[in-house]
Amino acid sequence: MNYILNSNTSIIWKSEYNINNLKIDREHQHLFAIAREALNISKFKKNNEQIDKLKKIITKLFDYVGTHFSNEQKYMEKIKYPDLEKHKLLHKNMLNMLTKLVSELNNMEIEEIQKSLYDFIEEYFIRHIILEDKKIQLWNTNLEDLKKNFGWKEIYSVNNTKIDAEHKRLFDIAQEAFIEVDEELKASKIKTILTKLYDYMKTHFKHEEHYMQEINYPYIKEHKKLHAEIILTINNFVKKLPDLNDTLFEKELAKIIDIALVHHIIQEDRKIINWARNN
């Protein structure tokens, strides 16, 4: 896990974490508020009083996480979400992580507590919301609405002109998939767009990796691994093409871009820029 925590670090809800379900988004925001409270307490000198406070806040977090997961699972059942059981398992693992953290608090140094809390919030809360909870809403969104809302948004900016321009280009290429063409041209269009997306993604990742080397980014190895995973996702998608109808192809492509790429931009690429600014 990438641990980049300094005195200016805070767990802040961002608009790009919204999955466009009002009830779930509000519950996510409340989870962030409780987590931020816990992180703030963990910054004070370790003593019995602080540990007791921290246990109470993390227990409060645990209770609310359980309530939220129950509500989210009822929603998935209601919309007949196909990956419900897999999602339930992710929820169970997160609750187990919190239970373990509470049980180990007395034996941890204050820096360890801070790191564990921050890692949990970043790796599980944020990652879970962007990667997993967004899948629920994408699955429950019709294709027309997906097309309408798809594309580059300024909230995706990492405030680096070159990287932002290349990210925007990736969205522009993917957006070409939603342009209507005659039936006999569809197969050719899909092949062209995927080839263009795949090639440009590799080019962009190469530029980004060169930039990380230039600034001596300490987590370059982990970041390159994430690049490889995204390329693999595209490869696997290409293999599924013969079994996808037009609607499924467009929804799957939107899901890959909106989840894999957007998550990568707003979580991982921002870490590079923030690290460069602070160092």
Automatic annotation (TrEMBL):
It comes from the Bacteria. One of its GO terms (molecular function) is oxygen carrier activity. The keyword Transport applies. PANTHER family: BACTERIOHEMERYTHRIN. Keywords: Iron, Metal-binding, Oxygen transport, Transport. Residues 24-136, 162-275 form the Hemerythrin-like domain. Pfam families: Hemerythrin (PF01814). This is Hemerythrin (Two domain). InterPro entries: Haemerythrin_Fe_BS (IPR016131), Hemerythrin (IPR050669), Hemerythrin-like (IPR012312), Hemerythrin-like_sf (IPR035938), Hemerythrin_metal-bd (IPR012827). It comes from Arcobacter defluvii. Belongs to the hemerythrin family.
